[in-house]
Amino acid sequence: MRGPALPILIGVSVMLSLAMGLRQSLGLFMAPATQDLGIAVAEFTLAIAVQNLAWGILQPFAGAAAARWGFRPVLVAGVLAYLAGLGLMAAAQGALALMLGAGLLIGLALACTATGMALSVASRPVPAALRSTALGVVSAAGSVGALIAAPIGQLLAEGWGWRAGVLGFLVLGLAMVPAAWIAGRVDRIPVPPLATGESPRMGVALARAMTHAPFLVMAGAYFVCGLQLVFLTTHLPSYLALCGQDPMLSAKALGLIGGFNVLGSLFFGWAGGRWNKAALLGGIYLVRSLVLGLYFAWPPSEASTLVFAAVMGFLWLGVAPLVAGLVAEMFGLRFQAMIQGIAFMSHQLGSFLGAFGGGVLFDLNGDYVLAWQLGVGMGLFAGAVQMAYALRGRGPPATEARPPRPAPA
Fold it and tell me: What are the Cα distances from residue 47, in Å, to 8, 50, 234?
């Protein structure tokens, strides 16, 4: 591993850990915030949905900006937007400020600091043989933030109100500033030479991605992945409260998801270097959907919720190193952040539907039955398609050119 790699990987891991941990724990504030502000559950979840939609739509643009101007300015700008969003959320007096702070600003921040950008940074300073493992390690570090943020947010909210919890998140977020600056050292490392058939032009690379069938299948399944995960992070606290469970159980569950995320990311990062990444993705989606269905089919208890959180955590961010590794294999590193951003846009469209659609169905029906049934059914279909396509055999990378014809004699 190259000398500069270690500080870059540490910096990007700290940044990703806090960016994801704070974001995943915002659902803790839904019940007290809606009561305090006098807004409907659907209005709070719309803000989270806007966050995920902005994150997805802006991710390819953030990746293109990093390819043009370098990672450091994009990372630092994202951190500043994150802090501004948390500050506006803490001061919100209605749904509009919540939408701008927790929604638009944090969505912009995540496009610049979260998984897509962080794994693109982590891909560059390590050799190809170690890339999948390194991506797994960084993804695992991205799970640690929830272990810290969820309990702190819950304790502050219970003791001093939900606004204090958000301000606590803002203080934690300050550590992202130096982390992003250090991760930006990756700009000093030159991009590897072009692979065979790889274009130095951004438009050509984008066109290849949008016509490459394995990439399109992966991006489509990624949509359902986002739907399931954001439905859980947004609505699990509300679901447990509706079932009469201790409010602290949701914080424990989110923290446990973060803890087992570490194991899952490490495992799938390691596994992606040895087995078919696309088939591993299909297996994750199938097993995750079955676990969702089993959990929601019966009334929750503390034991069942914690077991569910552990299994889901193991299957949670394990998709990230697999997707990032597949994009690097298909298209190379030069425009990885942008092309990975296209796939992530699909993921975030699903996240929008999971957050907002879950809130709408709850307001209409008074429960989450139809929401979880739809999520499970879509997940089983997406997993089956991804698995079936992967087992057909992997085609050549999109960057591979046809061999030249021999010159005439």
Answer: 33, 5, 11
